[in-house]
Design a protein that fits this description.
Number of domains: 1
Helix content: 55-70%
Shape: globular
Order of helices and strands: HHHHHH
Largest sheet: none
Number of strands: 0
Strand content: under 5%
Structural class: mainly alpha
């Protein structure tokens, strides 16, 4: 795909995703950050127009009905939001030990693997990037 096609794909995915989450505030910003991260880390050869079309169709179903697709998107964004917070809302008075940092780094590996498998089985391109920031 050319650079212009990738830009159009980003805009379409962002627009359809916002409609699927009904422009809710915490999910909107989490979605924007994840989508930006996926497109910035990716290369133009990584993007497949078939996968983007399937993802747009999935997001269209999530927009139209409050069914399985909508619940998948809602839960994905909730987990990504929790991951961005570091798994908890407030900072505790204790300093993190090296074991705690390692747990925070690897806690979402299985979740991201499940997203990759969902993408593979349904030929979609939901962002399954791992954020390795334990803070």
């Amino acid at each position: 795909m050319s650079r212009e096609e990738v830009l159009h794909a980003y805009r379409q995915l962002y627009r359809h995703s916002l409609r699927a989450i009904q422009f809710s505030k915490p999910a909107r910003y989490t979605l924007r950050d994840r989508l930006r991260l996926a497109f910035r880390r990716g290369h133009t050869t990584d993007f497949d127009s078939r996968k983007i079309t399937n993802t747009l169709e999935f997001l269209g179903y999530a927009t139209r009905e409050n069914g399985l697709e909508h619940k998948i998107i809602k839960n994905l964004l909730f987990v990504w939001w929790q991951q961005k917070l570091g798994g908890h809302g407030r900072k505790g008075p204790k300093a993190s030990t090296p074991e705690d940092v390692e747990i925070k780094i690897t806690a979402y590996d299985t979740f991201n693997h499940n997203i990759r498998m969902l993408n593979e089985s349904m030929e979609m391109c939901l962002p399954a990037t791992t954020v390795r920031d334990p803070r």
